[in-house]
């Protein structure tokens, strides 16, 4: 399970865009978004760095959260 801080994710539409980017990398990935705190949690076998790159390509700077 990976957690990402996604500061630019400000609404449900943003969260959907981030989710589409994650699901493009792994269609079976688990995904949840906390819009208020601008965080996403992803359960996937895809390496964290690849998921981070996909989120960035969708237009959202991110960083791994502790």
Describe what this molecule looks like in 3D:
- This protein has 66 residues and is an alpha+beta fold.
- The chain contains two helices and four strands.
- Helix 1 (12-25) crosses helix 2.
- The chain starts with a strand and ends with a strand.
- The mean pLDDT is 93.
SSE map:
Layout: E1 2-5, H1 12-25, E2 30-34, E3 39-43, H2 48-57, E4 63-64
Helix pairs in contact: 1-2
Summarize the structure.
This protein has 66 residues and is of the alpha+beta class. Helix content is 36%, strand content 24%.
Intertermini distance: 11 Å
What number is the mean pLDDT?
Answer: 93
- Which residues form runs of ≥5 with pLDDT under 50? none
- The percentage of residues in β strands lies in 15-25%
> What is the number of beta strands?
4
From N to C, what is the helix and strand string? EHEEHE
**Tell me, what's the shape?**
globular
Query: Level of helix content?
Result: 25-40%
How many helices? The count is 2
Order of adjacent strands in the largest pleated sheet: 2-3-1-4
Oligomerization state = single chain
Estimated structural class: alpha+beta
């Amino acid at each position: 399970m990976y957690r990402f801080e996604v500061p630019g994710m400000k609404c449900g539409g943003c969260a959907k865009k981030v989710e589409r980017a994650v699901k493009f990398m792994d269609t079976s990935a688990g995904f949840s978004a906390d819009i208020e705190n601008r965080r996403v949690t992803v359960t996937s076998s895809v390496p964290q760095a690849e998921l981070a790159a996909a989120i960035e390509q969708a237009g959202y700077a991110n960083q791994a959260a502790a």
